[in-house]
Amino acid sequence: MDLPCGGTLQIVLEPVTAESKLKDLLSVIERHELSARFLDMDTGKVRIEPGKWSDLLEFDGKVLKTVHGPRWRLLLIGAAQVSRYLAQMAQALDYHVTVCDPRGEYADGWDLKEVPINRGYPDDVVIAMKPRCAQRGGRRHARSKLDDAALLEALKSPAFYVGALGSQKNNDARRKRLADFDLAASEIARLRGPVA
Predict the structure, then answer these.
(1) 74, 33 contact by CB (below 8 A)
(2) CA distances from 45 to 11, 18, 26, 80 (A)
(3) I want to staple 170 with a disulfide (CB 3.0 to 4.6 A). Which of 60, 62, 166, 180 is the partner?
(4) pLDDT digits over 78-124, tens only?
(5) What mean pLDDT is reported for the chain?
(6) 3 state SS for 86-147
(7) What distance in Å separates the CA atoms of residue 122 and residue 155, rounded to the nearest whole number?
């Protein structure tokens, strides 16, 4: 179809059948997993594979590849007022947002129904989320600072961005505390703080 701007638009009409695997796709999306769906235009057969963050919509004239599920996930540690604002902004940008806070006085007041709250301890939540498919475990750290526990795990993972709120002074002190654990200087250097 020719458009007034001079471009073209291709429309794919696909009959919904068992071959479409829509139930499988919906199941993947409900688990908040990223997936790639490949539709063979000649046969109508579909295959679904785990997605990669770099996947894009592609069509070579024979196979249509579509990407489904959250592109980015955001884990916010602490259910305070700042987290509420960040969660709403991130949702508007199509992030899958989870808030983690084991402290009852904060978690009990969390009322954004579309943003789940996890009452687990932050380092356990980071491990369970498997940032960018990384899986680490078996370590326990002193749990003196709520955010430090999560940062210890996140900095070891291949997560593309790890940040912490707070002043420059607080972040300098945080880096010194992190150096007391089994983090390499290069891992600590990945910490963005104050977040930008």
Answers:
(1) no
(2) 18, 9, 17, 47
(3) 166
(4) 998 999 999 999 988 878 899 999 999 999 999 998 899 999 999 89
(5) 85
(6) HHHHHHHCCEEEEEECCCHHHHCCCCCCCCCEECCCHHHHHHHHCHHHCCCCCCCCCCCCHH
(7) 13
